[in-house]
Amino acid sequence: MPHHVKSGDNPDLTKERKAATFNAEDLSAFLYGSKEKVERRREISRIVASDPDFSNTPPLEFIDREKRIDVQAKKTRRLLGKIHELIDFTNDDERELLFTEVFVSDGFPIFLHFAMFLPVLQGQAHEEMADEWLSKAMNIEIIGTYAQTEMGHGTNLKELETIATYDKQNEEFVLHTPTRSATKWWPGNLGKMANYAIVTAQLHIDGKSYGPHNFFVQLRSENDHRPMAGITVGDIGPKMGANGIDNGFLALDRVRIPRTRMLMKYVKVAPDGTYTPPLHSKVNYGGMVHVRAHMVTSMATYLSMAATIATRYSAIRRQGRIEPNLPEVQVIDYQTQQYRLFPQIARAYACLLSGSEVEDLYKKTVQGLNRGEADLLPDLHALTSALKSVCSFSCATAVEQCRMACGGHGYSMASGIPNLYTFAIAGCTYEGENMVMLQQAARYLMKSLDKTARGEPLSYSVEFLGKKMETRSNVGLHKNNQKEEIEALLCSFEHIATRLTVVASQKLQNRMKMGESKERAWNGATVEMNKAARVYARLFIARSFARRVASSPASVRPVLTDLLSLYLHYECVDMTHHLLHDGYCNGEQIEYLKQRIYDDLAKIRPNAVALVDAFDHSDRLLNSVLGRRDGNVYEALFQWAKASELNYTDVLPAFDHIKQMMEENRAKI
Amino acid sequence: MPHHVKSGDNPDLTKERKAATFNAEDLSAFLYGSKEKVERRREISRIVASDPDFSNTPPLEFIDREKRIDVQAKKTRRLLGKIHELIDFTNDDERELLFTEVFVSDGFPIFLHFAMFLPVLQGQAHEEMADEWLSKAMNIEIIGTYAQTEMGHGTNLKELETIATYDKQNEEFVLHTPTRSATKWWPGNLGKMANYAIVTAQLHIDGKSYGPHNFFVQLRSENDHRPMAGITVGDIGPKMGANGIDNGFLALDRVRIPRTRMLMKYVKVAPDGTYTPPLHSKVNYGGMVHVRAHMVTSMATYLSMAATIATRYSAIRRQGRIEPNLPEVQVIDYQTQQYRLFPQIARAYACLLSGSEVEDLYKKTVQGLNRGEADLLPDLHALTSALKSVCSFSCATAVEQCRMACGGHGYSMASGIPNLYTFAIAGCTYEGENMVMLQQAARYLMKSLDKTARGEPLSYSVEFLGKKMETRSNVGLHKNNQKEEIEALLCSFEHIATRLTVVASQKLQNRMKMGESKERAWNGATVEMNKAARVYARLFIARSFARRVASSPASVRPVLTDLLSLYLHYECVDMTHHLLHDGYCNGEQIEYLKQRIYDDLAKIRPNAVALVDAFDHSDRLLNSVLGRRDGNVYEALFQWAKASELNYTDVLPAFDHIKQMMEENRAKI
């Protein structure tokens, strides 16, 4: 009996689970590393779900922002009170999983503390500062955040306006917000929760600017939480999503801090104002790379949750008939529904497996850095920039497709998907705006292309640029050899990535030849540049997905191969114009690719529910009436709605206005 | 001096407005029909903005659902008290504009009353019912809604589960909700506001079912608003958007209503239970068509608002440098930003003008119907189904691009765009789920294709199917003749639409030849069917946009032609693979199309702000800090945020938990 089947389940779901051709448990084990890790996930999940301290009743989406923040703060206190009994606190994976289960994709007061404040402190604090503050921070005796972005500047950090002027006399820095647009804006937990922040400001010494540096600033009293003198701090107001978090603003009015509160592990300002620059210019490079590498996994996780919800719901929702004399069908049997949904399941797997590969690359790179070898870093930096951009947009739009596949109920917060969408789509903007990220990757592609011209060796992620390409595709020539077929598809990705890189480079060169400066020519070529960078990322996802599938256990390899095949064919058809453009493929080959999508949809159909079960998301985490494991949706939907804040009373106070209006209208006659 | 320029404006916006090559006022007049109509819009806008009864302070997005509903109910009462002084109440356009200005894209208690309840009552009530209820409804002495969709059935109306059993003895209908999934779900204003509803239920007489019919049911007491006996009614809970509206549920427990409360203009149940069917089977066809025709305009309006916000903001936002020694540039000067934004401005114009053409077609069709000629109806039905689907999705995703073009601040509710997105994307699901709508259009395409085979004449919207096509495109051959160039592009749309219709038809035929039933074969061809239907709609939008531009006044025709050119080239490039597939175009032609996009972006650049000014949306309607006419964004953003509900006090009550947690952590040491 499949693990996810229980008595009392919706029979349509049970039928689906029993019909699967593989064991979802094996796939979960592959996805999360081992059977034991899956067990541990479930254990944490069970502990949280059964602990009344972490109750989500009423659902967070029913209560206003202030109450939500209160609920999450209360949970935070209770969680911290027993966290050492629950998990190994120093294990990042366990901590992240526990936080996710407790706070369910919503903000909480110490989110930025762990995500940014602690890592930056650990990475950049000099010994004296670390001695004084690190254990307090680790022990959460203070709550910190990281205040970099300003109202007027996000992407272009060099132009941040906040100033830290060194006062030699008093050995202090004076932090100041000179204009309205210099107000720090957006940092999470800055508005109401944090009492300390690392603040990025332009360092000025003796009238000279040394660029942005980080300073350790107390924002609020540890006793009564009131803002310190010179500090104006508050919440920036409601957002499209993530409203359980207090993204904040911060203005500093000539706030003085001791010289030792600058983060001086790599740079130094001596008491007399002497400035010592960092040895390497890109000291904080690694951190950014890590955050972006990890974003591939988080975006894929949002999508895997949305795909779980939409697939389970599509299996229990019956509407309409395919054949007039048979009963209403499960909507998952409509071709349009399969075409909308199954590629998103495949995409979730592709990005999850690709994300785990890129996190491995990151670890390898860090090991290299520790040996003093920095040569892997530029490659990984370009790759993660492009991947961050492609995965955030493609996963978010895929989440939205999953939502729409649930029809009207997908629009209700009961589906849980609107929340996933607003989190995922935010990823297009934070940690580097996508268009800017793609340009960073494109610059790297240009440099690498120059290397091929000079016959220099290419780094890992751009090796394809140096490959001898066949002029014609062999797509469709290996109908009976799946391995060859997949390799042919991957070669067509490489062909497109190479061609677009060359096209962008030519556009740049042509504009320069016509007399434009390099910078202006670059701006005139950025759309083509970004197209090249996107395919560079798509190629990496495709290749790494294929590698992971090839190394998967025999029991799950067939179903993963079906997913891989769907993914590659779907992506290739989406890029058809590039294949047709220079005759790499002909129309007949494209028709074959399209037909293969339909073949793959049919192969995946019996395994669709088991494939999403294998993501192994708990009901609590999914937070979705439509995506419940047991499939008993309609009664649950009714119970959920009854608890809506508007149903506490039968008649709302607003009726007074309505009553008077109706009476006045009657009186008019 | 351009109309939209005022002293104290952000100088970047003033510079843009002065640099425009055309007069935005002329374009507004063209868009809204006349200079007088634009003036009237502004007048209504001014009246509402200056009336403290309609104040939106604090902003609706700051307050919870119950308060929002209360605020809107209060405004409703005040508005109704003086509406006859403000507008001609019977003029639908004026009423809609007034409602929009007063309630600003949010729900209000009498939204469904006007949108559905009244039209259905007017269209389907028999004389006796009309006499009793119509003036009460017109006069808003009662508040009605339209309850059709159920929890378990939206699209497939034939399977609605609510039952109306005729009780001959008592000459009553007994309305009943037999299962949980039969609960009415989603109707707007049903939850808390309406006291009457038209309820759709399966008519049963003497054990025989006659299919879904409409019944007039009292839900709540006119005095104290309590639900009537047997009525369970409430709000369905929070949604992705539109949370100012009380979408509701309704369960009926053997509720008895007199026989005369069935809507019997076209059908009849005699006291003895004799059933008289309607003369025409598709009595209510016209209403659906009208709602969908109107959706083209509303979707385009949402997009025009988002484009206004993003374009103005892109003109005042300065970030980064294109040339290192020059100041930071307006972000609108980045090629990626233009590529992201300007096609959306063009799309907004395309859909607005196309929407007005389809509304004209609707009027013509109704005039025909009144003369007893129903031959235009099937064409318009197919066209509006496809247009509804294409415009809702393309405008909503375009809104989202506008939002992301605003960077981080686009994610704040202060931008106003999240609200536009959640309204627009809902249009993909309501009034007929998009996939189903496309299939309806595709069925019509199949029928029309059969007609061409039989040499029968084709209706207006599908005439292209009978056109003799050139086998090779002449795209790019008319570089010096804009009119010919545009016609060549439109022909390529026709080529694609025809080809995809034929491909879908062949797929259907092939599956049937292989032995599948027609229905099963249809399901196996729906993805191809929907592709054909989408291009059918895109062709209509392109053609009607071109027609409207051709008939525009000389003063605005050049700038509109630039927009049209951008729109057509952009759309064609998006459909490149279809043009390359069978050699209709070659790679060189495609490169030319791509280059033309960049040419058009450059032409539009100086007119971008004036083009969005011409949409003439008031600041109140835009409800956007980023999109303010005056461009003074940063100070306004700060003031907006300060008013956030979380900033009423410096220290939230949630700090109690945080304080205790920090103290407990300190004590652990």
UniProtKB/TrEMBL annotation, chains A, B:
Cofactors required: FAD
MF-aspect GO terms: acyl-CoA oxidase activity; ATP binding; FAD binding; fatty acid binding
Main location class: other
Acyl-coenzyme A oxidase N-terminal domain segment(s): 23-143
Pfam families named among the record's database cross-references: ACOX, ACOX_C_alpha1, Acyl-CoA_dh_M, Acyl-CoA_ox_N
InterPro entries found in the cross-reference section: ACOX_C_alpha1, Acyl-CoA_ox_N, Acyl-CoA_Oxase/DH_mid-dom, Acyl-CoA_Oxase/DH_mid-dom_sf, Acyl-CoA_oxidase, Acyl-CoA_oxidase_C, AcylCo_DH-like_C, AcylCoA_DH/ox_N_sf
Protein name per the record: Acyl-coenzyme A oxidase
Organism: Pristionchus mayeri
